[in-house]
């Protein structure tokens, strides 16, 4: 895997290092500028640009993007909506997790900020409350965090789409490809009925493989997927192009 290391300034570490140093556990890298706001230490974190499928080569910007028009617009219809920039600022970026070279977008720090978490849910609820959606399908694991409060607020049921062999009842499965190998998502038979209108929720869309499999799974049982919604999009990975005619709505996107 080819790597290019780009260091934020000032940074004493030379680019010749093949393995970047490990930051302290409580390091915080806000998405927007990757500025170091962790505890005071001599360590300065590198910013990585990676040539693999999960790289995030540009800082994430605050926007809500709707793929129907393929234009960027704010979720609240207000271009200056301060809620989105706050949400973006509390998402932490952790280098080299879960493996070297990955810039992991960590939404657990968003959950610690009660206003930003509530605003995230509200932005989705404002968009979907009048859309006659009867079921919200959340993708394991982080779709289980955002999906249920949205479902309750819009008066829809919540259905978990799980990793293989987790659901106890009869399931239907859909396979999808990963960088290496394949994975599956599963849903309980009978959780949704043909003709229902669904919203699919996850925290992040990267390559789009997971959402694509979720759409196929729901469509196989005759459910209409009204839209997919995520907090974060990594647009360079072109995930939305894999979703066909199903619209994708995101709150925070890279440039
Ligand atoms: O667009 P894609 O390339 O398919 O990637 C997006 C998926 O990757 C992450 O989940 P992950 O597979 O890491 O599972 P986890 O939430 O259970 O850790 C994320 O929460 C999405 O579900
Ligand atoms: N960079 C990333 N951060 C968090 N979750 C991901 N899923 C796929 N790529 C990811």
UniProtKB/TrEMBL annotation:
The biological pathway it contributes to is: Purine metabolism; AMP biosynthesis via salvage pathway; AMP from adenine: step 1/1
CDD domains found in the cross-reference section: PRTases_typeI
Which GO MF terms does the UniProt record name?
adenine phosphoribosyltransferase activity
Q: Which domain of life is it from?
A: Eukaryota
Q: Which Gene3D superfamilies match?
A: 3.40.50.2020
- Family indicated by similarity: Belongs to the purine/pyrimidine phosphoribosyltransferase family.
Q: How does it assemble?
A: Homodimer.
Name-wise, this protein is adenine phosphoribosyltransferase
Identify the species of origin.
Durio zibethinus (Durian)
Gene responsible for this protein? LOC111276876
């Amino acid at each position: 895997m080819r790597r290019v290391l780009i260091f934020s300034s000032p940074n004493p570490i030379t680019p010749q290092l093949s393995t970047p140093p490990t930051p302290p556990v409580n390091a915080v890298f806000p998405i927007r500028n990757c500025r170091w706001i962790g505890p005071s230490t001599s360590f300065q974190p590198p910013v990585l640009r990676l040539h693999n499928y999960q790289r995030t080569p540009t800082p994430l910007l605050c926007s809500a993007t709707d793929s129907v028009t393929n234009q960027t617009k704010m979720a609240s219809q207000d271009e200056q909506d301060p809620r989105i920039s706050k949400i973006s600022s509390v998402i932490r970026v952790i280098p080299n997790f879960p493996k070297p070279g990955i810039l992991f977008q960590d939404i657990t720090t968003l959950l610690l900020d009660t206003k930003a978490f509530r605003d995230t849910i509200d932005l989705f609820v404002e968009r979907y409350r009048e859309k006659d959606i009867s079921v919200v399908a959340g993708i394991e694991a982080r779709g289980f965090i955002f999906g249920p409060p949205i479902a309750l607020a819009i008066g829809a049921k919540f259905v978990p789409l799980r990793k293989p062999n987790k659901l106890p009842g009869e399931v239907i499965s859909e396979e999808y490809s990963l960088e290496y190998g394949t994975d599956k998502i599963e849903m309980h038979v009978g959780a949704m009925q043909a003709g229902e209108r669904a919203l699919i929720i996850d925290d992040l869309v990267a390559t789009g493989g997971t959402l694509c499999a979720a759409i196929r799974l729901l469509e196989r049982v005759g459910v209409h997927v009204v839209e997919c919604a995520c907090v974060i999009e990594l647009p360079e990975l072109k995930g939305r192009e894999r979703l066909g005619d199903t619209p994708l709505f995101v709150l925070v996107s890279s440039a």
